Amino acid sequence: MSTKIITTAAALAAVGFVGFADVASARDQIRVVGSSTVYPFTTAVAEQIGKTGGLKTPVVESTGTGGGFKLFCGGVGVGHPDISNASRPIRKSEFEDCQKNGVKDIVEIKVGIDGITIAQSKAGPALKLTLSQAFLAVAEQVPDKDGKLVANPYKNWSDIDPSLPNVKIEILGPPPTSGTRDAFHELFMEPGAEKIPALAALRKSDRKAFDTVWKSIRKDGAYVEAGENDNVIVQKLEANRNAFGIFGYSFLEENTAKLRGVPINGIEPEYDPIAAGKYAGSRPLFIYVKKQHVGVIPGLDKFVAEYVSPKAMSKDGYLALKGLISLPPEEAKKIAADATAMKTLTAADVK
Description:
Elements: H1 3-14, E1 31-34, H2 39-52, E2 59-60, H3 65-72, E3 83-86, H4 92-100, E4 106-121, H5 131-138, E5 141-143, E6 149-151, H6 157-160, E7 171-173, H7 179-194, H8 197-205, H9 207-214, E8 223-225, H10 230-239, E9 244-248, H11 249-253, E10 259-261, H12 271-275, E11 282-290, H13 300-307, H14 310-313, H15 329-340
Parallel strand pairs: 1-2, 1-3, 7-8, 7-9
Antiparallel strand pairs: 3-11, 4-9, 4-10, 4-11, 5-6
């Protein structure tokens, strides 16, 4: 057996790579899963490292944030992904699944900022929404005039408010496995519900019932789950001038010739308001790295170094050209240092 194979075998054993009879066939290509929002940014880094890093171009799959964590936390070894893209932080339950399955050392890297946008075709009637109007359009149950919860009766936007267009409510959005769906709930649905007096009162009297209301999306066809491929939503908006879609800012930025964003509470979904946190849908984006695979899967450390480098992450970097909103320089510098040191998450870091 060659020295290289012996070394690889020792490394595999050290991190718990079990059940592989032929260690010489260990994977030599980085595998990334997870968020469709983070997908184009990670793909750009993968292409860059494939061109300049002397490595095979990493494989990047769009599985949704929740689906990505499920795969990532499945175990340690060449049969499991090395990195998970995420459009929200890892949850306590997901972190615990990782720990249970032997994924003990996880590196969280905040790579930038994104804004959840509601977008439409430029050929359609312009729409401006408040958070409460967005909630009323999407929620499964809403209060009636007496404050009693009823099945959502709103068919047209003008049913919510006469100032809105008299067109059918049709919203194309992400499925439950998506981090964008999770963030839409937390950034749009919950604060939107809190602005409605009857639901604000419910929050005080019965928090569990209130949480059920803002976490539930209507199933009568007004909201259509369009899968994890946000480009499909873009295409459907082009084909249907009256439809609206929910996805990350980068997809709106790439399609400004055809689409426009819907202002929320009077704030346009644009770079500067999102970066400043003034836009309601602003959110951080992450990648999670399996430290136990570093030194076993070739180039994983180089991939991380490329991702957090100024040429990628800065305001003038190539990820900004893809629509990623860069972090403040001092924050980016600290994140890069922690990523290079492979600083791992602890249970206390996870909410």
